[in-house]
Specification:
The structure holds two protein chains of two kinds. Chain A is of the alpha/beta class. Helices cover 42% and strands 21% of the residues of chain A. Chain A has one domain: Glutaredoxin, CATH 3.40.30. Chain A has a five-stranded mixed sheet. Chain A has a two-stranded antiparallel ribbon with strand order 1-2. The model of chain A has no long low-confidence stretch (mean pLDDT 91). Chain B folds into two domains: 81 residues, Cytochrome C biogenesis protein (Helicase, Ruva Protein, domain 3, Orthogonal Bundle); 30 residues. Chain B is built from six helices and no strands. By secondary structure, chain B is an all-alpha fold. Chain B starts with a helix and ends with a helix. Chain B is elongated. The chains are: A alpha/beta, B mainly alpha. Chains A and B meet through α5 of A and α3 and α4 of B.
């Protein structure tokens, strides 16, 4: 019987390490899941009015996405074609340009296409901090003003199918 | 003496190292600034992960430093500033995890492992059998021993 104790300890450590090491340390879970979106009102890119606010998100009936991005962010370029694809599939994406110069944001949109239903600028990055953003791009799934899911990093077809669609299906009833 | 002088020179030259974390506007009230620095040391930089926001050069860390100072001037207590951060970034933003249900294993595992170690040592010691009487060498063994010893001495 005693012979099996080291084996049992080895198995316990192996399982713990297998689980522990397969976690992605750069993936920080959001504490705002199932909380209402933080209150904010952001101006349009390069302007004063015409952006959007937390009230706009709360007034939405279906599921919407909020995407934090910047023209200086390389992964955002990787993500952009898939956002265009999501727009084509009928998803409403609210875009927040994070600490970006308005002409750079406009250039980015003009050159590559506008996947956003509405676009606003967070010049100081304060709204992003209220959302718990720690890097761009980040995408939030929001229903009736409640945050349901957060994806950090460029969102791709696979992430969307595996993680976002099940959440959309579970909340969009 | 020369060593001491050069040490002092190097310490003098390294003042720029302290400049990190005060690149924004330090608070005018030294007591408030000390509090801000104390809080910032407890907050993890979310971009570089194992640095506090005092040490980090990341943009987000800088923004968080500004927020810490802002809230302190607005009269927040240390707890309120930390709560502001954890309500956005979770307990993860604290370099020192809080003592609560989910983190009990984390806090007690070193003690637990130490106790297991002591138990193993104790068990091994108590298992060890005392050495019995040693049987005297047989004449055959004595002869072999002597020949081996002499062999070494002759060389």
């Amino acid at each position: 019987m005693n012979k099996f104790i080291p084996l049992a300890i080895f198995c316990a450590i192996a399982i713990a390490l297998y689980v522990g090491l397969s976690l992605n340390p750069s993936n920080i879970p959001s504490v705002l899941i199932n909380d209402p979106v933080p209150e904010f009102a952001l101006p349009a890119v390069g302007g004063e009015e015409g952006g959007f606010s937390s009230a706009d998100l709360a007034a939405e009936d279906g599921v919407v996405l909020v995407n934090f991005f910047a023209s200086w962010c390389m992964p955002c370029y990787v993500e952009h074609p898939f956002l265009m694809e999501l727009k084509k599939r009928g998803y409403k994406i609210y875009g927040v340009a994070y600490k970006d110069k308005s002409w750079d944001t406009n250039g980015f949109i003009k050159e590559r296409g506008n996947p956003y239903y509405k676009l606003a600028a967070d010049n100081k990055g304060r709204v992003a901090i209220d959302f718990g953003v720690y890097g761009v791009p980040e995408t939030y799934v929001i229903k009736n003003g409640i945050i349901r899911y957060k994806h950090a990093g460029p969102i791709q077809e696979m992430d969307f199918e595996d993680k976002v669609i099940p959440i959309i299906e579970s909340v969009d009833k | 003496m020369r060593g001491l002088i050069s040490l002092l020179i190097f310490i003098g030259l390294s003042f720029s190292a302290y400049a990190i974390g005060v690149d924004e506007m330090p608070l005018k009230d030294p007591a408030q600034e000390a509090r801000a620095q104390g809080i910032m040391k407890q907050l993890r930089c979310l971009v570089c992960q194992n640095e506090s926001i005092v040490d980090s050069g990341a943009d987000l860390a800088k923004d968080l430093r500004i927020i810490v100072r802002e809230r302190i001037t607005q009269g927040d207590t240390d707890e309120q500033v930390l709560a502001f951060m954890t309500s956005r970034y979770g307990d993860w933003v604290l370099l020192k995890p809080p003592f609560e249900g989910a983190t009990i294993i984390l806090w007690f595992s070193p003690i637990l492992l130490l106790l297991i170690g002591f138990y193993i040592i104790y068990r091994n010691y108590s298992k060890r059998k005392p050495l019995g009487e040693v049987a005297p060498l047989t004449p055959e063994e004595e002869r072999r021993l002597n020949s081996l010893l002499n062999e070494g001495a002759e060389k």
